[in-house]
Amino acid sequence: MAKERTLSIIKPDAILKNVVGDIQSRIESAGLSIIAVKMTRLSKKQAGLFYEMHKGKDFYEYLIKFMTSGPVIVQVLEGENAIRNYRKVMGATMFGTAEKGTIREKHATSNAHNAVHGSDSPENAIREIGFFFPERQIYPKENYKLSHDPNA
Ligand code: ADP
Ligand code: MG
Q1: How many A from CA of 120 to the centre of ligand 2?
Q2: CA–CA separation, 21 vs 17, rounded Å?
Q3: What contacts 18, CB < 8 A, 6 or more positions away?
Q4: Per-residue DSSP letters for 27-48?
Q5: Has this prediction a pTM greater than 0.90?
Q6: Which of 109, 114, 124, 127 for a ligand 1 pocket mutation test, highest count of atoms within 8 Å of Cβ?
Q7: SS3 117
Q8: 58-98 tens-digit pLDDT
Q9: Which ligand has the shortest distance to the CA of 86?
Q10: Residue 118: which H helix or E strand, with range?
Q11: Cα(99)–Cα(151) distance, rounded to whole angstroms?
């Protein structure tokens, strides 16, 4: 299978708990490359648009409040089967059901406060990546070669 991209968000709860490095380490250990990254704070409007497919659900209002309560780290991940692979690294959504060894098993503290977001389909991955990053802010590895170190 060809390389695929997915959008990852490290949510405000994880940033507050100082577990950004742990989450990134799990991502890299799963064979995924971080090819774009930024820290930002979502406005209500941005969060509402990003999660518009959940509009009307009973958790929607709180989700927007939570996602705008502090900064987030948004990242583009690249690798084989990146969408499915990263969803597996994240673990299941509902609190207490995330599989052993997953980010959510370790860091979620409720249904809402579950540390991470990951795209759930190729269509949504394209939409979500475009929501945060123009192509020129994404750095796929095949475009770069380490320079030869003359002192090595
Ligand atoms: P996922 O993030 O696993 O794709 P969803 O797309 O279903 O899950 O939901 C988006 C986010 O909304 C979840 O990550 C979580 O933060 C929140 N959420 C989902 N379901 C609930 C719920 N029943 N109660 C509170 N928050 C929820
Ligand atoms: Mg989702």
Answers
A1: 6
A2: 11
A3: none
A4: HHHTT-EEEEEEEE---HHHHH
A5: yes
A6: 114
A7: strand
A8: 999 999 999 999 999 999 999 999 999 999 999 999 999 99
A9: 1
A10: strand 116-118
A11: 47
Reported as a pLDDT band with limits 50, 70 and 90, residue 113 is: very high
Superfamily per CATH, domain 3-143: Nucleoside diphosphate kinase-like domain (3.30.70.141)
CB of 105 closer than 6 A to ligand 1?
Answer: no
Q: What share of the chain is helix, strand, coil (3-state, %, to 5)?
A: 40, 20, 40
- How sure is the predictor about 2, in pLDDT bands with cuts at 50, 70 and 90? confident
Rounded-to-integer distance, Cα 72 and Cα 38, Å: 8
Domain boundaries, the chain: 3-143
